[in-house]
Amino acid sequence: MQNIAGLNGGKLIGFSEFTLTIDPQAGTRSSSETSFLQESLSSSTLQVYHESIAQKIIFSEEKTATGVKVVTAGTEYTLSAIKEVILAPGVVFMATSTLPRSCGWEKLPQSLRSGLSNSTLTTLRKFPSDWPEIEILPLAATTATVTDTDNYFSVSIAVLTTTSRGNITINSTNTMDNPLVSPNWLLTTTDQELAIQGFKRAREIANATGIIVGPETSPGPQVQTDAQILEFIKESLAPIHHAVAT
Question: How many CB atoms lie within 10 A of CB 201?
């Protein structure tokens, strides 16, 4: 895999370090709150309403947003807009309002690509030619049972050409109620096949490091067939906190 100069230069296939928002002196993560909000609070008339929930956008007869109905500590009131109302609740909660680590990106190697069906290969050809198909993440995290005294090496794989589509719908008209989230992970054959071959790629990488001592802990060498691998993936998969939506 080619070493690329950062992951922000527009070239996707290769490996490099992440750009992280870590304060090098304190070792703490810098957030929008610490980097921008605190400065704005001291240099502007910006006002923050703590522990408040927006329940409804108020519209005029001309269908222009004029304010927001808000609840704070059980008290309901309306904030009026002078210029505009900006709605930014994030991917998951949008539905309630509207209805140094390193990683690598690559195309699935040819040795594993042969394990994909013709229909999956046809689907993958619809993506741009420079679009990676899997992400390799050597993360210090696992869903397996481990001990506090042993050392472990783990490799996670993320599928980057997902074709399964989930949905988020409202649970009620009350914005305090969590929405109904259906991720629909691995719904398509394409995603299942890529996940299986990605798992095999993780095994290749782990064995190629030269630092593996002892048998595989999770899922273990007894898991070999595609059906066994897919079942393990279904039981252990997890998101990596990068939700996207339309």
Answer: 21
Residue 150, Cα to own-chain centre: how many angstroms?
29
**Please, are residues 132 and 194 in contact by the beta-carbon 8 Å criterion?**
no
Q: What local confidence, expressed as pLDDT, does residue 240 receive?
A: 77
Tokens of 93: 């909660």
pLDDT band at 172 (very low <50, low <70, confident <90, very high): confident
Residue 203: which of 120, 128, 124, 109 has the closest Cα? 109
pTM of the predicted protein model? 0.71
Distances, alpha carbon 175 to alpha carbons 48, 73, 93, 115, 180, in Å: 19, 14, 8, 46, 12
pLDDT at 93 over 60: yes
Strand ranges in the chain using DSSP code E only, listed in sequence order: 14-17, 52-59, 65-72, 75-80, 102-106, 134-137, 156-159, 167-169, 180-182
Query: SS3 of 15, please?
Result: strand
Which pLDDT belongs to residue 245? 63
| CA pair distance 190, 187, nearest whole angstrom | 9
Token pair listed for 10: 């527009």
The answer to whether residue 50 is catalytic is no
Q: What gap in Å lies between CA 30 and CA 189, rounded to an integer?
A: 40
Q: Which residue out of 242, 243, 244, 245 is catalytically annotated?
A: 242
